[in-house]
Amino acid sequence: MHLLRGLQLMVGFSELIHGCIQFDFSSEVSFSDNAQVIGTYPGSSKDELFGICASRCTNDIRCNAIDICSENLKCKLIRGWTPLTTESTSEGVCQRFQMNCQDGYFFDRQNESCIQHDICDFESDPESTCFLPASPSSNFVWTRKSGSTPSSSTGPTAAYRGMYYKYIETTSGSAGDKAILQSSRAFQVKTYCLTMYYHMYGATINTLTIRTQKGNSAAIDRWTLSGNQGDVWHHLSGVNLPLDSQTKIIIEATKGSSFTGDIAIDYVELWPFACP
Length: 276
Ligand SMILES: [Ca+2]
Hints:
Blueprint: H1 2-16, E1 36-42, H2 46-59, E2 65-69, E3 74-79, E4 94-98, E5 105-108, E6 113-116, E7 118-120, E8 143-146, E9 164-168, E10 178-182, E11 190-200, E12 207-214, E13 220-226, E14 234-243, E15 247-254, E16 263-271
Antiparallel strand pairs: 1-3, 2-3, 2-4, 5-6, 7-16, 8-9, 9-16, 10-15, 11-14, 11-16, 12-13, 12-15
The protein binds calcium ion (CA).
């Protein structure tokens, strides 16, 4: 039944495109597949919605699925892989279309191919797919944790996504100690975009830094934040990282003066293009 409806929608969809680049979807995904919404666009008619979604999805590499919601005249551009947030879509309200890509891959429309991007969600140990293992030169450690950190008044009470995150436990160690995650693979010569979630809650939070280092030359800070940011996960929406085969990514947390300095990160993604 889904297949038949999908075919009917594909035919209807082609007819509805008015002056937009054709959106060449391959299948309808099931409504039980949740996905991260990256934007919503209202329209004045259903015809217009298809046009908006087609052109947006053709030009936006982050999008590999769309919802057409005729009842409230909205289209939603969504990432069609592992869920990040639960979206309240119900059958009969929204029609969802998606390119055929495996989990963890997204569809590069310009090159018409599925591309993998890097994710560290810290859900498994060891995590063979994570591009940011601990650096052997660290004098302090990132600890993988589920639930609250041991001390009150600092650290998260749960992962941002899934069960596990990584954090620095600041009950032991000395102020200024640095815990380092360092990329372990070679990159192409281009600018990548790094996104992640961070939690910096406590009276003696020190500093979280993202930097790049080419070979043995001096590292370059690309993003840094210090001090208490409240008891909440924040989204780092994108840091541009010019990379190549010789350049490493470093994520470094520095310990503060007391036990109320726990810094945590979760769901680090590296996209093979500059931040939009
Ligand atoms: Ca996680």
